[in-house]
Design goal:
Blueprint: H1 31-54, E1 77-85, E2 91-94, E3 104-113, E4 134-139, E5 155-158, E6 164-169, E7 176-181, E8 188-196
Antiparallel strand pairs: 1-8, 2-7, 3-4, 3-8, 5-6, 6-7
Length: about 200
């Protein structure tokens, strides 16, 4: 089986990237074109069925479907982040296609002062390998206002300098963010996997 360009063991789907033919009103459609359209639909359907068996689904437990309100069945996800904060700026970790509010959030990774952690692409990246030292879970509720000080719900770690690096969800847009709390002239880095549950439907 092909490993694909990203090494994910999934076959590349061979379908046109754009329209092959543009038809005008009343124009004859040839049988070969109709057959090609059907073949491409079948290929997409087969690929979706295959993908459903290969990719792990993140969903709410069936036992919670009788809750009131019930959480959304699907829609959880996981992202990998690496980021650095200068201690005075809120750093965006993720705001792509998902609102991180009203979810259970789990963070697992490494957080240290800048001098103690290399990122991929830097000179010492051949030695990256750390024990997990930041690991926890919180409920993001309606998010947190970064200007209000220390996040009321977050996953954080107190660095050797005494300041606390925290992963939280911003209230204004549901973005996943990083900040130092309290704000200080202190540089911290994080490499982590951040996972989110489906929406809990409380907000």
């Amino acid at each position: 089986m092909s490993t694909g360009p990203e090494g994910n063991s999934l076959e590349d789907l061979v379908v046109p990237a754009s329209r092959v033919n543009n038809y005008a009103a009343g124009q004859q459609v040839f049988s070969t074109h109709l057959n090609q359209i059907q073949d491409q639909i079948l290929s997409v359907g087969a690929a979706v069925n295959f993908l459903a068996g290969q990719v792990g689904v993140s969903r709410s437990g069936s036992g919670n479907m009788s809750d009131s309100p019930a959480p959304t069945m699907g829609g959880g996800m996981s992202v990998w982040v690496q980021a650095q904060t200068n201690g005075t700026t809120v750093v965006l970790l993720d705001d792509e296609n998902m609102d991180w509010r009203d979810r259970f959030i789990e963070v697992a990774g490494v957080a240290v002062v800048v001098a103690d952690l290399d990122f991929p692409g830097e000179a010492g990246d051949d030695a990256i390998g750390e024990d997990i030292n930041i690991h926890g879970m919180f409920y993001s509720q309606e998010g947190f206002n970064p200007a209000a000080g220390t996040p009321t719900a977050s996953v954080g770690l107190t660095l050797t300098t005494g300041n606390r690096l925290q992963v939280f969800v911003r209230d204004t847009d549901g973005a996943l963010c990083l900040k130092m709390s309290p704000f200080a002239a202190d540089n911290g880095r994080i490499i982590a996997r951040v996972s989110a549950s489906p929406k809990q439907n409380h907000y």
